[in-house]
Amino acid sequence: MNEDRINLFLFDFDGTLVNTTPLILRAFHATWERVFGFVYDDSQYIKTFGMLLPKAMLLLTEQAITEERIARPDGSPGFLADFLSAKSEELTLVYRAFNQQWHDEMIEPFDGVEETLGELRSRGFSLGVVSSKMRAGVRRGLDAYQMAGMFDVIVAGDDCENHKPHPEPLLRAIGAMNASRNEAIYIGDSTHDIIAGRAARMRTAAATWGPFPRIELENLRPDYLLDNPKDLLTIFTL
Question: Is 12 designated active site?
Answer without folding.
Answer: yes
